[in-house]
Amino acid sequence: MIDKAKIINDIQNATTTQELENIKVAILGKNGILTSALKDLSKLSPEEKKTTGAALNNIKEEILTTLENKKSTLELAEINAKLLNDKIDITLNKQENHKGYIHPLTKVKEELIQIFASMGFKMASGPDIEDDFHNFTALNTPEGHPARSMQDTFFLPNGNLLRSQTSTVQIREMERVGAPVKIITMGRVYRSDWDATHTPMFHQIEGLYIDKGITMAHLKGCLIDFLKAFFETDDIPTQFRPHFFPFTEPSAEMDIRCTFANGELKIGSNGTRWLEILGCGMVHPNVLKSVGINPEVYQGFAFGTGIERIAMLKYGIPDARKFYETDTRWLSHYGFVSDDFPSIATGLSRK
Ligand code: DAH
Fold first, then answer.
1. Is there a contact between 273 and 313 (Cβ–Cβ < 8 Å)?
2. Amino acid 62: pLDDT
3. How far apart are the first and last CA of the chain?
4. Region 240-254 average pLDDT
5. Which helix (H) or strand (E) holds 104?
6. Ranges 178-187, 220-229, 260-269: which has the least confidence
7. Average pLDDT of 144-161?
8. Domain segments of the chain: what residues?
9. Is the pLDDT reported for residue 319 higher than 70?
10. Which of 11, 58, 102, 119 is the Cys-Cys partner for 336 at CB 3.0 to 4.6 Å?
11. Which CATH superfamily is 103-337 part of?
């Protein structure tokens, strides 16, 4: 006798199409139990043939339908499993998204360009490797002059040197365009120095303004305006303290009134001390003569200072050596977001 319920159950419990195929063969194959039962019908009487035949055909129908349904379900599952197995991972590992920062030196240089451009200064430049004439002699510092030892200069074997000051560009620019001239220059300078506030290479900004009738009053007005713009405050008392530079006469150092509290610079009239911020003076007649400009006709002023120094003061950066260590942690702390371009109109720095 055929146990239909068991067969249907076996079909439902099959887990692979192969297992299903085996069941099908065992029942409906050439020697399958249902095939044999159908063959055996011939042995029955016409009356039994009729009823048993109809019953067997119904069972066969039901088994076939169940087999078909189960087959589609298993095939689908097998295809899905295969797809999952054969899947090729075409994705790349996500790149870590490093945020870039503007280096404080770059930021301060951009600020200085904005300020001096607004006053009509043009940008000029000169080489890092200089000759003695442009670094010293033309700047009224002839051989044997004691001021040559004010800066620990690196000399090259051929007698040239790494410029120790951007004042060289004053000479180059006056040689190039004569007078009048109104320029700033920014660039690297080199001195044999190494501590928390000195590095053997650092950057200076230099300004030069030569025209007819330029006086110390112009110098003072220009530099006071510069410091107000740079430190973004009008409360910035300044003093010009007499000093010596070979290339200016008179010469001065400019100081600002301030207080240092918890490593932070507070500028303002209630400050407790004077802090030197730059060197300046009226260009020495000998300097003008060395580039063929008549000092009886043209006069002017010059100034210069370290860019790291004013960057450290403005942004509270304690150690000059860190500027060149390419330490991204330092940069993410002291750097600036890349789309924050300084302008006089929108403010130089954002807090
Ligand atoms: N060259 C000077 C230095 O490196 C800075 C300086 C002082 C530049 C006075 C000037 C100036 O143009 O007039 O220490």
1. no
2. 92
3. 93
4. 97
5. helix 104-118
6. 260-269
7. 87
8. 4-85, 103-337
9. yes
10. 102
11. Bira Bifunctional Protein; Domain 2 (3.30.930.10)
The arithmetic mean of pLDDT across residues 179-191, rounded, is 97
**How far is the centre of ligand 1, averaged over its atoms, from the C-alpha of 69 (Å)?**
94
Residue nearest to ligand 1 atom 2, measured at CA: 304
From the list 143, 207, 141, the residue with the least C-alpha distance to 173 is: 207
Q: Name residues contacting ligand 1 (CB within 6 A).
A: 165, 167, 206, 245, 248, 279-281, 302-304
Residue 351 has pLDDT above 70, yes or no: no
Tell me which of 140, 164, 165 to substitute to probe ligand 1's pocket, judged by most ligand atoms within 8 Å of the beta carbon: 165
Which of 323, 43, 291, 42 is CA-nearest to residue 177?
Answer: 291
pTM of the predicted model as reported, rounded to 2 decimal places: 0.73
Q: How far apart are CA 255 and CA 217, in angstroms?
A: 16
- Phi-psi category of residue 214: left, alpha or beta, with phi > 0 → left and psi -120 to 50 → alpha: beta
pLDDT band at 13 (very low <50, low <70, confident <90, very high): very high
- φ, ψ dihedrals at 20, nearest 5°: -65, -40
What letter would DSSP give residue 137? G
- Structure tokens belonging to residue 304: 């210069």
Q: Could you tell me which residue, 264 or 156, shows the higher pLDDT? A: 156
Burial of 209: CB neighbours in 10 Å, binned 0-12, 13-18, 19+: buried
Structure tokens at 219: 């110098």
Instruction: From the CA of 204, give the closest atom in ligand 1.
Output: 4
Distance between CA 285 and CA 296 in Å, rounded? 8
- From residue 89, alpha-carbon distances to 81, 86, 94 in Å are 16, 10, 13
How many angstroms separate the CA atoms of 328 and 312, rounded? Answer: 18
